Amino acid sequence: LELRSVPTRDSKDRITGRLWAVSDVTREREADRLKNEFVSIVSHELRTPLTSILGYTELLRTREFAPEERQQFITTVFNEAERLSQLVEDLLGMSRIEAGKVKLNRWVISLTNIVYELTTQLNTSLIKHRLLIDITGEIPPIYADRDKVKQIIFNLLTNAIKYSPNGGEIQLTIREAQKRDLPGDHPLGQWIVVSVRDEGIGMAPEDLPRIWERFYRVDNTNTRKIGGTGLGLSISRALVELHGGRIWVTSTLGRGSRFFFTLPVAGMKG
Ligand code: ADP
């Protein structure tokens, strides 16, 4: 709350009292703070890959290298360009969501195929990690937008990799949800629950409610070294909720996290 006061005066310029103005500026300040933080995060996220792309292309342009070395540099340039492209996609995705422009293209689809595609796509990032896929029992088809579902799982898997820098196991589980698997306020009906568990750095309880906010990043020595914009989870949450589902997390600092989300089974009533 901000209080401002000015003296009131009569026609002879004598002070007769004070006029007080009370205004709530916390919201404006918070918006300003987020905007500044946004500009600094985005600039940093743009600069890091760009510096490396410029550096390596300059080397490749001006010097001779052994074929293996050359190949290694080109791979780095490609990976960094991909990171830039991901950042731009996230920014566009976020603004489309906020403008209410995202429409789902929903079909009856199988999650198993999506998971298979994702694992082949992520193969090269899984150097230190072991990815376990646990799909037990008959998984009924879902009614969902294929690309969006892929994006949600991709976000959770890449976070699991990023935030377990020492490696470890990452487990992707898909189940038909039982009532006890769902949070108390979950909509009724028939749901599939997807979860991604890692053995990474985990999060403190006070950070858990905030990670869904756009641009929010847990601030500690571990996360500062790991790149990111704080957009992935807010995009994922918006996409899950467009499907009528929910997303939530359990985590222990220093031990790991487990993210869950639900998607509606095809033909579900309501
Ligand atoms: P980004 O990874 O780009 O920072 P996200 O929106 O995906 O953005 O995640 C927000 C924050 O939540 C991250 O910065 C990180 O602090 C925390 N976080 C997300 N996933 C995990 C995880 N698997 N383990 C630990 N912390 C995580």
TrEMBL record:
All copies of domain Histidine kinase, residue ranges: 41-267
Transmembrane annotation, as ranges: none
Highest taxon listed in the record's lineage: Bacteria
Protein name listed in UniProt: histidine kinase
Species name: Oscillochloris trichoides DG-6
Lineage: Bacteria, Bacillati, Chloroflexota, Chloroflexia, Chloroflexales
